Amino acid sequence: MNLNIHEIANLQDEFLLPWLDLYETAFPPSEKILISTYLRLFQVGKIGPHAENHLLAVLNENGDLAGMAHYEKTLEPGTPASLWYLAVQPGQRGGGLGAHIYQHVLAQCREKQAPALLFEVELPEEMSSEAARVLAGRRIQFYERQGALRLTGVHYLQVVGWHQTPMPMQVMVHPLQALTPEQAFELAAWQYEENIRQTGTLRLEK
Q1: Measured distance CA(96)–CA(104) in Å, rounded
Q2: Within this chain, do residues 146 and 73 fall inside the same structural domain, yes or no?
């Protein structure tokens, strides 16, 4: 693919507004943090190549935004990376761009010596329509094809802020080193704190 992956470094970056536009339109309100949260992260220096949060703008051959991602890796050794958002422009989906972005994020996480990449996906059984259930299942299958695994035996509530009701989600783990289910849960508990709890036998499953 003839793509350029650009990391947004400051509020004056020319790709920040297109990135935010795709963020606003690609995800349901229940799963989005407030835009003001991003502005505050910029203000305190927590976004950028040498910070914890990384906003990636994926540009096509014309220099237009084709996709986006937000992942986080703290500077503390041994801590997991977290993929918060990944999206592709509607007209460019289905051509492998999402997989390309995801693999780039994985490569960055390996460089930062993260033991795993963690993220959340919708639970198909929690969706309100058959079409939404099918789409949620396809998302899980997409990440499984990339090598991610479902962490089962847990209950997890996604909390994006005071403005939305917490929502049950599926935690997925992409190991970047050998991990037992128990170790994967420890990493998830470190990241999600009281929002995740064990409810049964821990497994990493496809």
Answers
A1: 12
A2: no
Q: Is 9 exposed, middle or buried (0-12, 13-18, 19+ CB in 10 A)?
A: middle
**Same domain as 123, residue 110:** no
Asked if 27 and 90 sit in the same domain, the reply is: yes
- pLDDT per residue over 78-103, tens digit each? 999 999 999 999 987 878 899 999 99
Query: How many domains does the chain contain in total?
Result: 2
What is the spatial distance between Cα 2 and Cα 14, in angstroms, rounded to a whole number?
A: 20
Residue 170: domain span? 116-206
**Residue 58: is its pLDDT beyond 80?**
yes
Query: Does the pTM exceed 0.85?
Result: yes
Alpha-carbon span 196 to 206, nearest angstrom: 20
